[in-house]
């Protein structure tokens, strides 16, 4: 019960005003006792997922769990996450305490300096971004739709022996209506984010311990390996393609390639060059379209000035990690002018 209470507090965080949270809280003790009873008796059945589509910028189908199921997800992760987090490699950065996108970008910067010998320039370099070194930038094709449930359970069984916990994990995996039976996880669930790291920890170990790649960073299914010789990265690419077959995954053919560092590496929403970072063009188009939409709503009296500025500040917090001072200044100037 203490675990369920903690899980409930985590599930309601930043959502206290939502109707489904208030509904669950109207009889909190009874709801938690009912969940405890169902889990102990192994009669628990997850509710159907609610699906909706977002474009951020590419189209994704998000599957939201019922609030009572989110409480169960947090309760499960409270127990098994500390067990697995101990075996995750240092350079896995998604959905982990003390990690995140900006930590991953800092680590990439560190690796880039080492590979390029602190920015050693190529012969006849046109500018100070023309440095030595290459990057293998890749991601897994349709990752969340491709995760194989049997492979996942085999991986989990190496660390978890309790049959009731394994039963619960299977229940959560099977609750997703995927195109291929026995495959896929819903985007948007806490457990999916956690299981995504568990599954690709197999890839992490292969890259670090079999290929002995020193400069490797992974964020969910996006990863990058840096090295000086291009041929070595091409060898890594071929080896990784073969390895992923063993866990029933494949690399995205168009998004997995070796490129020179001086060309800029697209990583976690940025185009990263040696001396500077820029937001991806798609992200700039997205924020421009959003601001134009906010201005239309403001003119119709649906949104007020304070709410618009608050929302745009979220993008500024992201963009501040790139060389965007002039861009942000001009964007805010134009926005305030439109809101007069």
What's the SSE blueprint?
Elements: H1 2-12, H2 19-25, H3 28-41, E1 50-55, E2 59-64, H4 67-85, H5 101-115, E3 134-139, H6 143-146, H7 149-157, H8 163-174, H9 190-210, E4 215-219, E5 222-227, H10 230-246, E6 257-260, E7 265-267, E8 270-272, E9 277-279, H11 281-299, H12 305-319, H13 325-338
Antiparallel strand pairs: 1-2, 3-5, 3-6, 4-5, 7-8, 8-9
Helix pairs in contact: 1-4, 4-9, 7-8, 7-9, 11-12
- Please state how the strands of the largest beta sheet are arranged side by side: 4-5-3-6
Largest sheet data:
4 strands, antiparallel
Q: Could you tell me the strand content as a percent range?
A: 5-15%
Q: What general outline do the C-alpha atoms trace?
A: flat
The whole-number mean of residue pLDDT values reads: 93
- How far the N terminus sits from the C terminus, by CA atoms, comes to 54 Å
Instruction: Bin the helical content.
Output: 40-55%
* Count of helix runs: 13
What structural category arises from helix and sheet content? alpha+beta
Using only CA atoms, what is the Rg? 23 Å
Give the H and E element order: HHHEEHHEHHHHEEHEEEEHHH
Uncertain segments:
none
- Total number of strands: 9
């Amino acid at each position: 019960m203490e675990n369920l209470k903690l899980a409930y507090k985590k599930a309601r965080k930043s959502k206290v005003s939502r109707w489904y949270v208030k509904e669950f809280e109207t009889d909190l003790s009874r709801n938690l006792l009912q969940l405890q009873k169902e889990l102990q008796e192994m009669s628990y059945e997850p509710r159907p997922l609610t699906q909706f589509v977002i474009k951020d910028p590419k189209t994704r189908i998000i599957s939201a769990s019922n609030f009572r199921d989110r409480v169960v997800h947090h309760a499960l992760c409270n127990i098994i996450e500390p067990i697995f987090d101990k075996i995750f490699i240092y350079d896995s950065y998604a959905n982990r305490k003390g990690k995140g996108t900006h930590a991953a970008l800092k680590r990439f910067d560190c690796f880039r300096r080492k590979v390029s010998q602190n920015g050693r320039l190529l012969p006849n370099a046109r500018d100070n971004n023309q440095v030595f070194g290459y990057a293998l930038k890749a991601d897994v094709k349709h990752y969340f739709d491709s995760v194989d449930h049997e492979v996942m359970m085999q991986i989990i069984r190496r660390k978890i022996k309790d049959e009731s916990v394994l039963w619960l994990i299977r229940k959560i995996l099977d609750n997703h209506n995927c195109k291929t039976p026995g495959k896929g996880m819903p985007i948007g669930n806490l457990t999916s984010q956690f299981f995504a790291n568990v599954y690709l920890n197999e890839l992490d170990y292969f890259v670090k311990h079999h290929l002995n790649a020193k400069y490797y960073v992974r964020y969910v299914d996006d990863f990058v390996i840096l090295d000086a010789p291009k041929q070595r990265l091409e060898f890594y690419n071929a080896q990784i393609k073969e390895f992923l077959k063993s866990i029933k995954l494949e690399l995205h053919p168009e998004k997995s390639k070796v490129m020179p560092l001086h060309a800029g590496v697209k990583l976690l929403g940025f185009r990263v060059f040696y001396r500077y970072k820029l937001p991806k063009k798609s992200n700039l188009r997205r924020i421009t379209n959003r601001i134009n939409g906010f201005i239309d709503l403001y003119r119709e009296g649906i949104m007020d000035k304070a709410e618009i500025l608050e929302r745009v500040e979220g993008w500024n917090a992201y963009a501040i990690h790139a060389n965007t001072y002039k861009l942000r200044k001009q964007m805010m100037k134009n926005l305030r002018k439109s809101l007069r």
